[in-house]
Amino acid sequence: MSKITIVLHDLRGGGAEKMMVRLANQMVEDGDYVDMVLITGGGQNKAYLDSRVRLTELDCARTLSAFIPLRKALKDIKPDAILAALTHINVITSIACFSLGWIKRLSVSERNAFSLDKQVNSDPVMKLTYFIAPFVYRLIPRPVIAVSKGVANDLISTTIVRPKDLVTAPNPVITKETIDAAKQAPKHEWLLDKTEKVIVAVGRLAYQKGFDMLLDAMFEINKTLSCRLIIFGEGELRAELQQQIDTLGLTQKVSMPGYTENPIAEMKAADLYVLSSRFEGSPNAIVEAISVGTPVVAFDCPHGAREILKDGEIGALVENQNAKMLEAAIQEGLSQNKLSPTEPILTVEQFTSENSAARYRELILS
């Protein structure tokens, strides 16, 4: 049994937060002692954290002000291994570990396309963090854990990080809980009483997710094929996307019901899952959709979709940000049948929580 601490900003409804909760839960299930330290606190995913994971919420207003509280929390816990996730958390945790003389205990994780993610963060402090991070990654003894080969290659090609500074580990997407959750009925009325084909998309309502392009494709598709789209998620572009829906006359064809506690049940009931992101790290929702046999159409965005879909072998890959090609692929995808009941999870077996936790444990404790 090992004592492992995971450091995050909070437990909001994002993919990174969800994956770290699932990783912590699997590790504690496997017998490790797991602490989770949040720089701020709260978030939708807090409810899913196993009660055996000890949670510490520092309630710091900003990451910059977290150094002393974080250092104290780590010193009190005295972990065998520390795992930080997301660029700004990686940097502040590295500084805290340097000050404690514990840098050999630290592993950091990059969850997104570094070169693209930094472009959409306009905050001056975040810009400085993205500038500093590659130098930190060169200095720390343990390699950075990237969620996909694409994320690793992006860091190598756009920063001073070297190939020897990086390793990869799959996300813990499929768990006992997600398998049970998939057996539940969907809650959206369009999926409960399906009168026409329904497409599902899941993600933060933000520029990165490309829902504006998906809405343009829906407008064209509905000229010849009547179908509906449900986008599950919340974010800063809600009003802008709703305006686009209204302008395109898609009010009866597109629904944005907000965050859902059980996206995998909604995906299972859908006829097609679509990933319209401009960039990603390792899009977990694709794995979830495949695991329940729902056909997938995805932009070949940097990064992760091509790896998960095995170069298009188990899902349609579309030229990145080409809305016309997305439109055609969706129309073709809506004509596909579900995968056979035994095939889906075997196809994405590397993303089970057991396999993911074993890989992370190997990397952070070796």
UniProtKB/TrEMBL annotation:
This is Glycosyltransferase. Its EC number is 2.4.-.-. Pfam families: Glyco_transf_4, Glycos_transf_1. Gene3D superfamilies: Glycogen Phosphorylase B. GO terms for molecular function: glycosyltransferase activity. It is an enzyme of class 2 (transferase). The chain crosses the membrane at residues 81-103. The keyword ATP-binding does not apply. Keywords: Glycosyltransferase, Membrane, Transferase, Transmembrane, Transmembrane helix. Residues 14-175 form the Glycosyltransferase subfamily 4-like N-terminal domain.
